[in-house]
Amino acid sequence: MRAKVLLDTNFILVPAKFxxxxxxxxxxxxxxxxxxxxxxxxxxxxxNIIRTxxxxxxxxxxxxxxxxxxxxxxxxKTTSKDYVDNIILGLDxxxxxxxxxxxxxxxxxxxxxxIVLRQKKYLVME
Length: 126
Hints:
Rossmann fold, about 130 residues, alpha/beta, globular, single chain, six-stranded mixed sheet
């Protein structure tokens, strides 16, 4: 069975902000075959960043979108009008890649494994 790795919106921006290839790093961390996923709501958040932000944030959003289009993670369709973090907390069977410390703490309480950026240089699994 393949592992499922869900990329949170803030994590999608890591390559542009910190010049870390999250896709190669995830490959290094995973000892089993895996698939990458992204929520449709995360894609909407990314579009919102591109549309409303200026300067570095906007450029980071554009680069993140281009990388996502190249890597083609699977998109999870959601029907909930809830926030992305709450949707993530309601999912089962995923390893969640996020830099959101509050979300990580909640996931840890539920026994969900996470992938995080360390020292702005590499990823670790918790």
